[in-house]
Amino acid sequence: xxxxxxxxxxxxIEIEKIRVLFDPFIKENPLAADIDVDSIEADYILxxxxxxxxxxxxxxxxxNTKAYLxxxxxxxxxxxxxxxxxxxxxxxxxxxxxxxxxVKMVNAVHSSSMPxxxxxxxxxxxxxxxxxxxxxxxxxxxxxxDMKQIAEAYKLDFAILPIGDTFTMGxxxxxxxxxxxxxxxxxxxxxxxxxxxxxxxxxxxxxAVNQNKKLQLLTIGETIAI
Length: 226
Description:
Elements: E1 2-5, E2 11-15, E3 18-22, E4 44-46, H1 52-55, H2 58-65, E5 68-72, H3 73-80, E6 87-90, E7 95-98, E8 101-107, E9 124-129, E10 134-137, H4 147-153, E11 158-162, H5 171-181, E12 185-189, H6 201-210, E13 214-216, E14 223-225
Parallel strand pairs: 3-4, 4-5, 5-6, 10-11, 11-12, 12-13
Antiparallel strand pairs: 1-2, 1-14, 2-3, 7-8, 8-9, 9-10
Helix pairs in contact: 4-5
């Protein structure tokens, strides 16, 4: 399995040659200028909520790939009106079996509206279970007690957690979240894209080390093996 970071909360994960893209936000990300959106191939697009910094490239990637969009009913319906025909809506607690494994939608504590200001439903995260690995993509969220239910149902290999503070958890809460969901490996998301969510990366990594955890902060465009 391979994981590529495209900045902010956008990740591409390749599972047995099936490509799953999360929260595509690239062209409007000032740090992702070197990423060519047209070169991104995806079979599925998973969207955690409707904010512009998580959906801005959905239509572009879909136009190029016809990837299946999986998100909340409200997000999927909004994109359906824009011509997207391949989709599957989920709501919290719902799970779907796909050719690479299962996707379960779980709670997130945040807000959600579409780029035009219309209602975006409730924000969400995803637990992905495959033959190779099981992981949690938290989306944009605060720390919350429902995360403990993930550890009760799954054995996670890693979690993609927001760490930028202000609009989501900061590093301190993300380390607690890792305990809640039962993993010591965090891949950081939703930080440094804008000045208001800048973090001290060395300090964040040191905090994780002090708690016997691995906080991995990827360079935009970097690919790692999981």
